[in-house]
Please model this.
Amino acid sequence: GAGVSQSPRYKVAKRGQDVALRCDPISGHVSLFWYQQALGQGPEFLTYFQNEAQLDKSGLPSDRFFAERPEGSVSTLKIQRTQQEDSAVYLCASSRRITNYGYTFGSGTRLTVV
Amino acid sequence: TQLLEQSPQFLSIQEGENLTVYCNSSSVFSSLQWYRQEPGEGPVLLVTVVTGGEVKKLKRLTFQFGDARKDSSLHITAAQPGDTGLYLCAGTYNTDKLIFGTGTRLQVFP
Model:
């Protein structure tokens, strides 16, 4: 597709529920990133893939967060046993291998845990 | 943990005024990018700078990269209401991982 597509746009989850957030990157983009953004703040890095390899997951807040990109294109961010502090916008971005080209972001998934 | 500090955090000005946003880090960037984000959308790339001392212009926006590649500024001339949004600087440090600044929220009133 022309841009990075994320779904769902909005998700309301009850505390303790598992959620899965999907990201479709730009076709051919090798690198894929997940960020978490609290209201009014800059995005915080969660994890990063190059093709199907997860090269850095240092930003994942806890072992309840898990990301995968099994075929090197679509990625899923899974949050188990959601808690209220997980409420945020989750952004996905993709880029070509060379970082100087910049990153293209999706519109994000707004997760609200009630 | 954010490694990039932006100032000011908030800026509210009248149409036609000029403004400058600053981005500072204690570490040297491999590259630095500026993004603009509107409510409900993801950040949109404005510019990438990689060379110390580099200056880039995008219409009324001027971006400068510090000589030591540890700081950057964004200057907007004759601001317009359409410039309203969250401005984010973001840097890479010898990896592909992009670290974002704290953000500057700009409001331009007609």
Remarks:
- Residues 81 and 93 of chain B are 34 Å apart (CA to CA).
- Chain B has a mean pLDDT of 92.
- The interface with chain A takes residues 2, 4, 6, 30-31, 33, 35, 40-45, 48, 50, 86, 88, 90, 92, 95-103, 105 of chain B (CB under 8 Å).
